[in-house]
Amino acid sequence: MSESQNENRDNNEEKKDQQPIKTSSGLDENLAGLLTYLVGFITGIIFLLIEKDSRFVRFHALQSIFVSVGLFVLNIILSFIPIIGWGISLLIAPFAFVLWIFLMIQAYQGKWFKLPVIGDMVEKQLNNMDNN
């Protein structure tokens, strides 16, 4: 057997040994992270309230809340600006959809993807919650 085949076999055995991390909600950590984004701030709040152990899930729950509330407020503000605001709002919608899908994928892959600005705010809030 060649050296690269041995490495592939070893990597596959390591992946089999790695069990998904369970959260206090009973779900795998990456699945719970994905679900925090599913219905925006609603699932974000739900997972923030029920998750006690996983910092990963609480991070994604907070990021979901911040992003969805921020986009909601932005759309409300833009709706009061005739024509230009409505046009910008129409341009933001596909961006928000792509961002939503992207964040769910990142969470499902187990990545701590931190959005610029919002991610820093989320980390500060999470640190405050951990200290209390």
Q: How is the topology of this model organized?
A:
Layout: H1 3-17, H2 29-38, H3 41-50, H4 55-79, H5 84-108, H6 118-131
Helix pairs in contact: 2-3, 2-4, 2-5, 3-4, 4-5, 4-6
Region (Disordered): 1-24
Organism: Ornithinibacillus halotolerans
Subcellular location: Membrane
Helical segment count = 6
Helix content: over 70%
User: Structural class of the secondary elements?
Assistant: mainly alpha
Number of domains: 1
Rounded to the nearest angstrom, the distance between the terminal CA atoms is: 55 Å
* Range of strand content: under 5%
Mean model confidence by pLDDT: 88
Report the count of strand segments: 0
The profile of the biggest β sheet is: none
Shape: elongated
Which stretches are low in confidence, meaning pLDDT under 50 for 5 or more residues running? 8-17
Order of helices and strands: HHHHHH
As a whole number of angstroms, the C-alpha radius of gyration is 19 Å
How would you describe this protein?
The protein is mainly α and 132 residues long. It has one domain (3-131). The protein is 75% helix and 0% strand. It is built from 6 helices and no strands. The N and C termini lie far apart (55 Å). The model is unreliable at 8-17 (pLDDT under 50).
